[in-house]
Amino acid sequence: MKLVFVFIMFAKLTFAASPSVVIIGGGPAGLSSAIEAKQAGASVKVIEKRGAYEREQMLFLFEHSLDLLKKWKAAPAGLSVVGVGDRRIGFVQISELENALLHRAKELGVEVIQDQFVGFSKKGRLARLKKTGSIPYDLLIAADGVHSLVRQSIGIELDRLSQGKAGAAFFLLGKDQPPNPIEVLPHVQHGSSFVRKFQFPELTLVFLQGPQSATKEDFIRLCKASGWDLQAKQVAANEALLLLDVDVFLQRATRFSLKDRGVLLIGDAAATGSFFRGKGANYALESAEIAGRFFQTNDYERFEVELNQATDVLVEDNAFLFQHEESQQR
Q1: Among 39, 74, 171, 225, which residue's beta carbon has the most beta carbons within 10 A?
Q2: Cα–Cα distance measured from residue 269 to residue 122, given in angstroms and rounded to the nearest whole number
Q3: What angle do CA 40, 41, 47 make, to 5 degrees?
Q4: Tens-digit pLDDT profile for residues 7-34
Q5: 187 phi/psi in degrees, rounded to 5
Q6: What phi, psi does 243 have (nearest 5°)?
C-alpha cells in the first residue's frame, strides 16, 4: 500500500515538474519563451505556420536583449554590436535572429510543428490545429502576433490606442563603394510626420511614420527637409527599395493571461507599437523572459503585473508617434 502511495506521489511530482507547454507562434517571442520553458523542465511544442524563416527586416536590439541572447546561448552569427554613447546596440536581420533561436530551441529538445492554430476544443485544455488535430497542453503561450487568434479565441479584448501608417526606404551600397560609418540618428519631426535614419556599413535605412500612407514624393521631400540630400536623390533616381503603406498600431490587450484556460499572451499578441522606435523585438524578448519567471512560479498575478509594467514602457515610448493632432499643432 505504501509503495502504491509513493508511486502515485512520484507520478504527480514528475507531472508537476514537467508540464506540457504549447507555444503558438515561432517568432522571436515564441522561440525565446520555448527556450525558457525547456530550461525550466517543461515539455515544449512550438506551432509555427511558416516553413522557413526568411524575413529581411532589420532589428535593433538593446543591452538587455543582447544579455538575454547571451544567456540563452542564441546570439545570431550575423549580429553586429556597436557602442552608441555609453550603450550597446545590436543590429540583425529578423530571419537571422529567428534561425538562431530556432537552432537553440531544437538543440534543447523543443519540438517544432509546422501547422496553424484554429481554436480551442470546448472541453479540457486542447488546442485545435489545422492539420494535426487537437493537441493537449497544461500551459499555452500565445505568441501569434498583432492579430492573435489565440487572444480572440479566449475573448481577451484589445485597447486599440491609435493607428498610423509607416514606410521605409532601403539604400544598399554598391560593391565599389566604401562602407558607411555606423550612425543612429534621432528622429526628426516635420508637421505630423516623423523620419529617422539608421546607417550601417552596407545599408542605410530611412523610416517614416505619419497619419497617412507615404509616397515616393514624401520620402524625397522629407529627406531633403532633414538634410539627407543623398538619400533624396537616390529615391528620386529609383535607387532605393521603398516599403510603403504599412499599418502600425499602438495597442495592448486588456489583460495578459487567463488562468482558467492556462493561457499567457506575450510579444505582439500582448501589445505592439511602431517599428519606428525599434522596441518591438526588445519587448518580445523581455515578455519571453517574464514568461520564463512564470514557468518557475506559476504565479499569474505576478505575470500580469510584470507584463503590464513592460507594456506601459512600450506604450509610453511610442505614444508621441501617434499623436497626430498634437503634432500638426506644433
Answers
A1: 74
A2: 22
A3: 90
A4: 333 333 333 458 999 999 999 999 999 9
A5: -70, 155
A6: -115, 115
